[in-house]
Amino acid sequence: MIPLKNIKRLIAKASQQPAYAVHAARMRLLSMLSYRLLRGRSAPPETISLLLTHQCNLHCRMCGQWGERGSLKNLPPSITRAYLDIPLIEKLIEQVKGFHPTITLFGGEPLIHPQWAEVVGLVKGAGLRCNMITNGILLKKRAEDAVKLGIDEIIFSLDGPAEVHDRIRGGKGVFRRALEGFQHLARVKKKYGRKKPLVNVNTVIWEENQAMLQEIVRQAARFKANTITFHHLIFVDKGAFDETEQVTQAALAFGSPDWAGFIRDELPRIDPERIIEQKRMIEGEKGAVSAFFYPNFSDEEIRAYYGSFSFLPSSYKRRCMSPWMVAYVLPDGGVKPCLSLGYSMGNLHDASFQDIWNGKRAVQFRRLLRERRYFPVCPRCTEFSRF
């Protein structure tokens, strides 16, 4: 249910949000039992992620959506500029509020949605926990609403000190604007006497920031972060991509176009020994910001991860349980069991969430994944090591 390698990180998050931790543990237990016993059906998900829009105001170089090989770059504006509409969100919240999932606002950049505050109001008005993943560029003007409406957690992507962050994110002044936003958020929280939203930083380890992980921890403190989590760079070769396409097309006639955004012709120029050394130093420090690496690979796993396109973790169970735990709702109302695979379980314009979650297509997908345990691209995904 919870990999032992993730326990330290889980305890830190639980200390921040104990009620959520208890509820999430219960939901994960039910999903784990579903995985083992229900032959493709599942208890309700712990988290529902709403992709409010595919639009983004940055084109981060490592991003699978809008990066150097991003999967969205050649799609028509009718898809990339669409918004998840308010009536559909309202209907969804009414359908799912009984089992109290966490609602994560995602994108693209969720703050671009013109009715963002109304979305948050619907989620919090139903008594549900609300997270948001953002690049922080628009946060300054949204900070007051974020605090007053009661967002529980903001996850911010930080790539390094100002110059490095701006270069990776593809825009001058990006770091400064995000920093101003989070510093203003801290002032608004103080003004209203609120501890939330909590601020948790995510950093993707990348060629250009691999030598400055300790400095990034220090920078996270400037953003008033509670925690920082270092994520390993996601990358696959064309062989793993093609093999996944062959398997999924033959079984259920779907592809994995989003994974095309993570294809590399060569291994990333990341020195695993440098990562291992900094990981040890960071984990030995006690600072204002709690720091974690996720997945929490061993030294040998880190060497294997960056040293070959063929990788399977040895300290995590080699199977994916995410489609029993999480659902993704796209701007057009489609509901996916996996964000990066091109498979839809149904559409909220046509059926209720409950009917989709345990509908025929959902059950077929989970049975296929349960039988195979994972697809060739899966070991590079953070969800593979989450549950």
Tell me about this structure.
43% of the residues are buried. The protein has a single domain, classed as Aldolase class I (TIM Barrel, Alpha-Beta Barrel), CATH 3.20.20.70. The protein contains 14 helices and ten strands. The mean pLDDT is 93. Helix 5 packs parallel to helix 6. The chain has a ten-stranded mixed sheet, with helices on both faces. Helix content is 41%, strand content 12%. It is an alpha/beta fold and 387 residues long.
Topology of this structure?
Layout: H1 7-16, H2 18-37, E1 47-51, H3 77-80, H4 86-96, E2 102-106, H5 116-125, E3 130-134, H6 139-149, E4 153-157, H7 162-169, H8 174-192, E5 198-204, H9 213-222, E6 227-231, H10 238-252, H11 272-284, E7 290-294, H12 299-307, E8 326-329, E9 334-336, E10 346-347, H13 353-357, H14 360-372
Parallel strand pairs: 1-2, 1-8, 2-3, 3-4, 4-5, 5-6, 6-7
Antiparallel strand pairs: 8-9, 9-10
Helix pairs in contact: 1-2, 4-5, 5-6, 6-8, 11-12
